[in-house]
Design brief:
Shape: elongated
Number of domains: 3
CATH architecture of the largest domain: Trefoil
Distance between the termini: 106 Å
Number of strands: 28
Structural class: mainly beta
CATH topology of the largest domain: Trefoil (Acidic Fibroblast Growth Factor, subunit A)
Number of helices: 1
Helix content: under 10%
Strand content: 35-45%
């Protein structure tokens, strides 16, 4: 009985180790961000798109017997988003060299070179040989993949007869796009409103903004949101009736411009429809805020105009302002020489009607 238990335990441990040995890293399933890399040191076990040196074509999994075929790509600012699974390769370090493969079910297919012709082969293997290994260097921003078994052969792209195969020279070396760490974006765009939810005393001439943390697309259609469709995503009401507005978007920021000033002491609700990002991560529901405009009786004053300063004795200075719910204003100026050189605010206009919006004074001779 004890021998049987020991045997079962040993078998279980061996099975556990076998399963663990095949775990590796999560399979790429078609959703992720790939960034162009520029050094051999950046190559780690993971998923990559292998492209030609002009960034126009990627090597795909289809082998036509003597070469791998190509797929057109359109990277943007050194980034590839959601490349198809059949152009994504698993690159792994093997000693000082690397292997290039893809997995289909239980089969691991390696990029391989054998012979003396301009070819590249697909070889299913559980233990890659030097024919399936590559020494990688970089020169002038492009990677050279030299076959370990036949060191005169480089994996390259032939633009004249479009294909990826092994050549001695004369063809295009390679560019690598690497799946970002944490690489699969699963988060929907995040909206930040200004004014924020529950804000009060909001100015009547406010132009609310909605800022997203990434480019946004309509959902589920997937059309890029731009000035031709952004207004259709916005709802703006005073709680009952719609507010007439126009809207634009630039750098992921939507700006809403009401046709007329808002009303005093009124709660407004601004809503943006559920949208998605380029990877189709969609918001669960529309996002909205409610803010309240300033009361008609609230006192506000804001200094306007441009004041270059400093001003000296005898200079004439005009100040301007906008004010609400003030009868009169007092104008003060900072005098550095006052208070025994410490400086102090001194009244220069004792009182003037707030509605005038302007006052002029002359800097006194003893200032």
């Amino acid at each position: 009985m004890s021998k049987l238990l020991h045997l079962l335990t040993t078998t279980l441990v061996a099975l556990t180790l076998l399963l663990w040995g095949n775990v590796g890293f999560a399979q790429y399933t078609g959703s992720g961000i790939f960034n162009k890399i520029a050094s051999v040191e950046e190559i780690e076990d993971g998923y990559y798109v292998i492209a030609n040196s002009t960034d126009a074509f990627a090597m795909n999994h289809t082998n036509a017997g003597k070469y791998f075929t190509h797929t057109a790509i359109t990277p943007s600012e050194d980034v590839l988003a959601n490349p198809a699974t059949n152009i994504v390769w698993e690159v792994k370090k093997d000693g000082t060299n690397y292997t290039i493969s893809y997995t289909d079910g239980a089969d691991i297919t390696y990029v391989s070179y054998t012979g003396s012709k301009n070819e590249a082969h697909a070889v299913v293997s559980t233990s890659p040989t030097d024919n399936q290994k590559w020494a990688v260097t970089i020169d002038a921003g492009v990677f050279k993949f030299e076959n370990v078994a036949t060191t005169t052969r480089l994996l390259q792209y032939n633009a004249g007869a479009p294909r990826f195969a092994c050549y001695t020279s004369g063809q295009q070396d390679l560019i690598l796009y690497k799946l970002a760490v944490g690489g699969v974006d699963t988060q929907a765009p995040l909206a930040t409103f200004d004014p924020a939810d529950a804000d009060t005393k909001v100015a009547l001439n406010v132009n609310p903004t909605i800022t997203f943390d990434e480019p946004i697309y309509t959902s589920p259609a997937g059309a890029l949101v731009d000035n031709t469709n952004v207004e259709s995503l916005i709802t703006f009401t005073d709680g009952t009736d719609p507010v007439t507005f126009s809207a634009t978007i630039a750098e992921n920021v939507i700006t809403v411009v009401p046709t007329a000033d808002l009303l005093n002491a009124t709660a407004y609700t601004l809503t943006v429809a559920a949208i998605q990002d380029e990877l189709t991560n969609a918001m669960d529901a529309p996002a909205s805020v409610t803010f309240t405009t300033i009361s008609a009786a609230a006192e506000t004053i804001e200094l306007t105009g441009t004041y270059a300063g400093p001003y000296y004795a005898g200079d004439e200075v005009t100040v301007t302002w906008t004010a609400a719910n003030f009868e009169n204003v007092v104008v003060e100026a900072w005098v550095p020489s006052a208070n025994e050189g410490v400086g102090a605010w001194e009244v220069v206009v004792t009182t003037t009607p707030a509605a005038d919006g302007t006052a002029t004074f002359t800097v006194p001779a003893d200032a």
